[in-house]
Write a structure and sequence with these properties.
Elements: E1 2-5, E2 15-18, E3 28-30
Antiparallel strand pairs: 1-2, 2-3
Length: about 35
Amino acid sequence: MVRRETKTGANAGQPFWGCSTFPKCRGIIKVNA
């Protein structure tokens, strides 16, 4: 998992953990700040 940030939408700018092999793996986890 790598830390990423949403680019668009209602949650733009919010961090999350996403698979490093995207798009092969599409798992995500919210970052609790």
